[in-house]
Predict the 3D structure of the following.
Amino acid sequence: MNIKSLLLGSAAALFAVSGAQAADAIIAAEPEPLEYVRVCDAFGTGYFYIPGTETCLSVGGRIRLDYGYGANGFTNPVSGEEGWAKRSRAYLYLRSATDTEWGPLTTYTEMQMQIDNSDYFDPADAFNSELGADAEARLPFATISLGGLTMGKSESMFTQWTGYAGSVINDGIVGFGPFDAQLISYTYDAGNGFSVMASIEDDISAGLGYIPDVVAGAKYAAGAFELSVVGGYDENIDEGAVKARLDGSFGGFSAFVMGGYSTNEAGNRFANWGGDWAVWGGLSAPVTERITFNTQLSYDEEETFGAVGNLVFNVARGFDVTTEVFYVDNFDSVVDVDDIGGTIRFQRTF
């Protein structure tokens, strides 16, 4: 073997070794397995599994913009000039659900934040001002539910059991029950259209006692009709109230009539209407595929009369625009109330 052949062979061997080393250097390591978010369809749409757990979570929200005028407007305290009342509100909804041997274990949390230039939208000061004079935050719902049992911060079952007084914005011209409550409630559904409910509640009013109020109700649904009855006992004044409601649906139309009676004329926690009794009625009907008409009439013993009507335009999925007008008159009031107001609402729900 001559020197030339030896040099060429050595160079080739070095090239092969270095090439193998270079190839080894650029080989990528095996990727770590990733845990992707999985869809959870056991509790409805919108849920997903929290990674590493068997708990399903749903996140949603809403942006609501309200503009009111007239009886639902804003009056300048200095000049007395009328103007538009404005309110912007954000909602955050959190729902969780897990299967257990006792049935689904669920939670519901709803947080609200808003800013406005008037108290006309919330005359009862439903919001607790935590962020300043015009910015407010509140926690209307924070509940745990298991096997028919619900506990936590919610709305009174006296109001929830029969539902709101129509699909209108200004549904409380004649009050139909309280809202904020700390409660423990139990609902039994017989599975044949019949259900019953019992609830013990604290009205979250400081200095009004430490014994909870009691609410009980029954409901029966058959075909196009549903009848619900509820009663509440206010332990602070040993008085109470009852409500009964009949709902019916006919194709795209739905209607309801509801009546309330208080054991004392001055009212109690549950009877926030005027006098001993009050009545409400409403109708919802489709106008087109995207427009729905809703109306409500209400009247109580103190001769407070309210008439409300609106058109809800579904601009796109999850986005509605509502135009509403209402009339309120209190014939028996010392200061005569006779006014017309209006509200325009833009609402995006996701």
In short: The helical segments are 3-25, 157-160. The longest helix spans residues 3-25. The CA atoms of residues 245 and 258 lie 4 Å apart. The mean pLDDT is 84.
